[in-house]
UniProtKB/TrEMBL annotation:
Domain of life: Bacteria
UniProt keywords, alphabetically: Membrane, Transmembrane, Transmembrane helix
Protein name: KinB signaling pathway activation protein
A Gene Ontology BP annotation from the UniProt entry: positive regulation of sporulation resulting in formation of a cellular spore
Keyword Transmembrane attributed: yes
Stretches that traverse the bilayer: 7-28, 48-72, 84-105, 111-130, 142-162, 168-187
Record flagged with keyword Membrane: yes
Species this protein is from: Gracilibacillus halophilus YIM-C55.5
InterPro entries, sorted: KinB-signalling_activ
Length: 204
């Protein structure tokens, strides 16, 4: 992928993270907005917009670091585990989902059903995204895509899960999932585009 498309991926993902977090804040942090609605304090509301937008940029950077770390780890693991790497990934997916349920329940308490539901929703969504990735590229891309969407997203989500209260955990997962989905599904398109541009440049 050429440098222009790398820059494009960076800034487009950054924008997606900021906007998705800002939109999510309307639902997750409704109380923060209501506080300045009666009477309307536009200065404070603008401050909230800027705060959540900037927070989304941070979440996007976490997503991008996770994505490029995964690309590096995946290449390294292919060299180490070779044909067993897909099996290892399946095991890590199962452990990540178990961790989202059991260890969170042990650490935080609350309703076990909520943790199970979150893990199931993440798995179902990741399965759909991995299916799209495999359809647009090849069948072998399914397990790596599922691994990225489940395991890497869960790892990236850890800072949000450790915050007191659940608001920022829910606020964080939205941009992480959206940014990870975007990066995963746009990568092969940008790679193909870079290849075509390089071939056209060589022919000219």
């Amino acid at each position: 992928m050429n440098s222009r498309n790398v820059v494009r991926l960076f800034f487009s993902t950054l924008a997606i993270g900021g906007i998705s977090t800002l939109i999510a804040s309307f639902f997750v942090k409704t109380g923060a907005y209501i506080e300045f609605m009666n009477p309307i304090d536009w200065f404070e509301i603008l401050g909230l917009f800027i705060f959540f937008l900037a927070l989304g940029f941070v979440f996007s950077l976490i997503s991008q670091m996770g994505f490029f770390a995964y690309l590096t780890v995946n290449q390294f693991a292919l060299g180490v585990f070779r044909r067993y790497w897909p099996i290892v990934q399946i095991g890590l997916i199962a452990f990540a989902l178990f961790d989202l349920v059991y260890f969170r329940f042990q650490a935080e308490g609350g309703s076990l059903l909520t943790y199970i539901l979150v893990a199931v929703l993440l798995l179902v969504y990741s399965w759909i995204v991995a299916g799209i990735k495999a359809k647009e590229t090849n069948r072998k891309a399914f397990i790596p895509a599922l691994f990225f969407m489940v395991v890497i997203t869960a790892i990236e989500w850890v800072p949000g899960l450790r915050t007191s209260g659940g608001d920022y955990a829910w606020l964080m997962i939205v941009p992480l999932v959206i940014c990870n989905t975007y990066q995963l599904l746009i990568l092969h398109r940008l790679t193909d585009q870079s290849k075509r541009e390089r071939e056209m440049k060589e022919q000219s």
